[in-house]
Amino acid sequence: MSSFTKKSRLTFNWSFIIGLFILFSIFSCKDKAGVTAIDSKDTEITLIIKNPVPLYNNPNFSKTLIEVNCKIKDNRNNPTETNPFTIVTHVNRNKDVTWNVVFEKPSDDNDYKAEILFVEKKDDCNASASEPDFFDAKILPRNGAGNNVKRKVKDVPEIVGKNYTYRILFSITKKADSITRYYSIDPELKGNN
Asked: In this predicted model, which residue has the larger pLDDT, 19 or 134?
């Protein structure tokens, strides 16, 4: 084996080891509470209706129907469209969380209207009675005539590292006949400093 080949392998091995060390360092950065440290800022969660027609035409919706026709994303740790039932969005204490809904195709706005009606904490039979709420109310109504829900996360250390399962109740109305259908999804939040 030539000295050039040995030197290339040695350089590659060190580069590989250094790369692994950097990745390990990045992904193992944890704060004292065991949560990944992220910037403290407001959070925006967007429900995206990919196709309102099958949702509207099936008022007795199923989880699969919603998974196919709706996605969700946020401006934090889920910037790309994700399954609305598996997303976990990071939120910070004393920062706002805003939920809104949009159609993927703006032309759908001509025939349908989508609204978030409210966000509510989903009761968990196994949850401890002392488990902290992330917000000042269990049910968070939309903002007046607006099409979103906005609320500030409580400034309490007990939420750090905890998950908060909630329900988004949203509706789709067909403008031609003014009939409204109702749907819900159950994503999660994770508390951070």
From this structure: 134
Stronger pLDDT, 190 or 27, i.e. the higher one: 190
Number of Cβ within a 10 Å radius of residue 191 = 23
Question: In this structure, are residues 46 and 116 in contact, taking their beta carbons and an 8 Å threshold?
Answer: no
pLDDT of 80: 95
- Residue of higher predicted confidence among 146 and 186: 186
pTM of the model: 0.77
Q: How far apart are CA 85 and CA 166, in angstroms?
A: 10
Q: Which residues contact 40 (CB under 8 A, 6 or more apart)?
A: 92, 93, 95, 192, 193
Q: Is the pLDDT of residue 127 over 60?
A: no
